Amino acid sequence: MVDRVTLYRAPTTEADADTIAAWLEERIDADVTVEDRLLGDAAGEELAREFAAARVLSPYDRETGTDMLGIVRYEQRALEHPERAGGVIYDGLAIQDALRKRLPGEGGLDHLHVPLLDRVLGTWGDHDGRWHKRVAVLGQPAVLSVPGLYEAPAKPEAYYEAKQKHALVSGDTPPREVLENEVDGEFLVADDPRTTDVLKGYVLAAYHYLETGEAFCADPDCRLYDAHRQPALLNAQLRGSAFCEGHAEQYG
Fold first, then answer.
1. Same domain, residue pair 111 and 206
2. Do the Cβ atoms of 8 and 187 come closer than 8 Å?
3. Average pLDDT of the chain, as a whole number
4. In a shared domain, residues 132 and 176
5. Phi and psi dihedrals of 151, rounded to 5?
6. Beta strand ranges found along the chain (DSSP E)
7. Cis amide bond preceding 174, omega within 30
8. What is the DSSP letter of 143?
9. Does 95 share its domain with 35?
10. 190-210, pLDDT tens digit by residue?
């Protein structure tokens, strides 16, 4: 049984861990606390090497990582100065393993740790032989990628149509910000003010998984739903009755 939850801040992102913690504590039977950035406390050359080893090198290559000294040095600087990080996808399970070894205390299942990260995480899909960006890697610790909210769930079709049109006309892909301003539709953008509210459901899902063994809910109107498209993400997290009937009894 989970009786403690600790959230770790991601200060370079829009996510407000204190607000999420207050929301969560109203809904679960566990103490919820907030700590500073876990990567800051755990930073060092060894962790930098593990981040370098977890780098996704190609969307279609299962093998990850490099031990090149320059990349390790980059990862060390990014751990110390997270505002410099970006543009890299990491194997989410490898990052989870690296952080698990550095959890304070004994890391038992009665104390859930939820680091909010400023990195993009992915998991390998055996079914289609490619990497997929993820918002959440559940377990202990439950690792949540804040930029994953903006990048993992697919955007509306109009976004990709505009991207293709620009590529045909100019021969190059326009900056993401240009497309986001051009396209009508509902999707999260970097540093979106809705980030904190959307993350609440994922933090609750992390608790729910460790407490019950159930990963996500199949009901697209429930906050425990793992949406694969941006409109579905916003629907599950920001609209409707918040929970399906079954989970409303637990958390509503």
1. yes
2. no
3. 88
4. no
5. -110, -30
6. 4-8, 31-35, 89-91, 111-117, 120-125, 130-134, 136-137, 143-145
7. no
8. E
9. yes
10. 889 999 999 999 999 999 999
